[in-house]
Structure formats: C-alpha cells, structure tokens
Amino acid sequence: MKKVVVLGAGLVGKAIAIDLAKSFDVTSVDISETALSALSSEGIKTIKADIGNNTVMAALLKPFDLVVGAVPGFMGFETCKTVIEAKKNMVDISFFPEDPFLLDELAKKNEVTIVTDCGVAPGMSNVILGFHNQEMKINSYECLVGGLPVVREWPYEYKAVFSPIDVIEEYIRPARYVQNGAVVTKEALSDAELIHFNEVGTLESWNSDGLRSLIKTMPHIPDMIEKTLRYPGCIEYLRVLRETGFFSYEEVDVKGVKIRPVDLTAKLLFPKWKLKPGEEEFTIMRIRIAGEKNGEKKQLQYTILDRTDKATNTISMARTTGYTCTAAAHLVIDGKFNRKGICPPEYLGEAKDNYQFILAYLKERGVTYKLSSY
To answer: Which of 168-207 are b and which e, b meaning 16 or more Cβ less than 10 Å from the residue's Cβ?
Structure first.
C-alpha cells in the first residue's frame, strides 16, 4: 500500500487524512498533540514534530510516496521547498503568499510534481477553468466564493476554519484582477457588491487576491476576477480595523515590549471566529465563464452550495477544500498526473479524464458542482 504523509492536522488536514486513509497508508504530522489525538482515534498513524524544522522534516519524509501540505500559509513556501529538496511529490493547500513558480526550477531539477493551491478556490475553480480553456476561447472568468457560518452571530458574523493570520492576509493583501488584458491591482475589500443567492440570501462580495497563478498561466484571457463573499456589512468594520493598524506586521512598542499588532489581533479574534461544537457552516461558490466555441457564444455557470456533514461532523470548507486535494493526490500517486515542476490546479484540469475524475470524486462525497448556462 502506498504511503502518504499529511503535514498539518487542523480541521482541513484532518478531513484530508481521514479521506486518504480509505485508500492509502496515512500518517499525519503536527506539533499539536490535541490535533493528533483526534486522528489517532480514527486509526491514523501520527507523528508529533515541528514541521518548520527543515532538518527534522528531511528525515521524516523519506519513507513516503506522497506528501500533502496542509500547514498555515506563512509556513507553506519553506515547507514546499523542503519537500522538493527531499525529492518527494506533493499536493499542497497552504496558499502561501510567495510566488510558487520561484520553486519551479528546483522542482524540475529534482523531477518532482508539486500541485499547489489545490483547495476549493483557488483549487477547484482553477481545475474548471483549465478544462474549459482547452475546449473553447474564453473571454471572461468570474469566481465568487465564500465560507460562512449558518448562524450570523454578532459581532463578526464569520467563523474561520483556517489559521486566523491566513484569514487576515486576505484583508490586507492587494487584490489583483485582469481587465481588458491588463493586470489591475486594488486594495483588498474594494469594489463591494451585493449579490443575491436564492439559497442563502444576499451576500457582499469584494476584491481579494484569489486569481494567483491564473494571472501567469492564462494571460490570453482578457477579463478575470475573483471576489470573496461575506454577510453584508463586514467590509466596513474590517476596513476600520485595517486602517487603525490592527492588521499591521510592523512592531509597535507597548510598555517596553515589541509586538506585531497582527499577532495580538489574531489572538483576540481566534476565540470569536472559532466554530463551536455543533455549529454548522456552508461553502458557496459561483463561477461564470464566457467565450466562444465553434463560432457560437458560450456562457457557462458552475455553482456549489455545500453544508457541514452532520453525520461525520465534517465542516463544509474541509470537505470542499480537502476532497479537491485528496482527488488530486489520487491522480498524482496513481501516475495519472505526472507533469514535473510547480503545477497549479489549472494544469490538472487540462486533461478531460482528470477533470471528470475530480468532479466524480467530489460528487461521490456529496460535494456536487452544478453546471448551467447564464
């Protein structure tokens, strides 16, 4: 049986490990005994280790056929580099802020396949665009996506399933999109719009930096944008916090102690954002792709509304992110996707068989994408 190691045992890492354990010999690695104990009770092997220690990780990775990365974004780039230097294939969901293509030459030199950003968006959204880019001439691409709690609880009406600092990054990292063939950069949280969804009501969308690799791999598409969805009203208080400096990485002196405001903010927000036992959330996404095929205009729309699986107590964001990742892991470990170097998910979608496999894999787990025209 092939051996897979999952780095990170948070909410998404846990779902990934449990799903992969149906087919492979899985070991989860984390520094938190609490996180690992939840996986031990599922019969999954665990190792307590500091993933940020390159020397420790280089030795730890040796027995495994595939590495799955589910660490916080600030650790992602160095973790990915360590895996490449260990000459192991990898599927990663850490969404690190650095340009993954900085590692492309190293990955090719070591003849490894590294699938980055393999979650829901970026992730499945890229797979879908990658497939249709082979099938038609695309003129525009729009992705609206968000993960939200079912119950809108004051003051934030939001719950985070990722590292709080990773969420805060979304509120401060400049947002890039493509308009008329040019890359436009605006501040995060800009260009707010109210969008109505029949299933969940009206949500607020705003610019976030979700296109990532698509800006480089799809330069021929003249209009591309990704926007984040939240409950209406969130932008104003997030902008207030940002402008006041609560999200700043620059140290300030507080009674002789140097602290980064973002660290204090993350510490204070985490209890407010943490899902309580029994709380449910949902993932909603709408993708619109417009273009031409064989001289005919095409307007395609993919939608998904996924909710917490109460039977297994698996949150939706872990399902939609994690199962995209585990589907890709199957393709890599089975040799059905073996392109060397840094491979964003749009490369996965280029082959029709892989695109169909991922959709079917997700549907089998109750994560269903609906395709229609708009």
So the answer is: bbbbbeebbbbeeeeeeeeebbeebeeeeeeeeeebbbbb
What is the side-by-side order of every strand in the sheet holding 90-92?
45-48, 25-30, 3-7, 66-69, 90-92, 113-115, 341-343
Q: Is the dihedral of CA 293, 361, 117, 260 positive or negative?
A: positive
Q: How many residues belong to the chain?
A: 374
Where are the extended beta strands (E) located within 153-261?
175-179, 182-186, 193-197, 201-207, 223-230, 252-254, 257-259
pTM of the model: 0.95
188-191 LR contacts (CB < 8 Å, sep 24+): 189/235, 189/238, 189/239, 189/242, 191/227
**What are the chain's domains?**
3-119+317-367 (3.40.50.720), 124-307 (3.30.360.10)
Which stretches within the chain are classed as H helix? 11-20, 33-40, 54-60, 73-85, 104-109, 124-135, 164-172, 214-217, 234-244, 261-273, 316-333, 345-349, 352-364
Q: Average per-residue pLDDT in the chain?
A: 95
For residues 158 and 234, is the Cβ–Cβ distance under 8 A? yes
In this prediction, residue 274 carries a pLDDT of 87
Give the list of residues 6+ apart from residue 32 with CB closer than 8 angstroms, or none: 9
Of 149 and 166, the one with more pLDDT: 149
Nearest residue to 278 via CA among 154, 150, 158:
150
Phi, psi of 330 (to 5 degrees): -60, -45
Question: 247 is written with which tokens?
Answer: 């999200």
Instruction: For residue 193, give the 3-state DSSP assignment.
Output: strand
Going by the DSSP 8-state scheme, the letter that residue 119 receives in this structure is B
- Residues 234-282: tens digit of each pLDDT: 889 999 999 999 999 999 999 999 999 999 999 998 888 888 888 999 9
Residue 350 has pLDDT above 80, yes or no: yes
- pLDDT value of position 222: 98
Q: How many helices (H) and strands (E) does the chain have?
A: 13, 18
The answer to whether the CB of 93 falls within 8 A of the CB of 115 is no
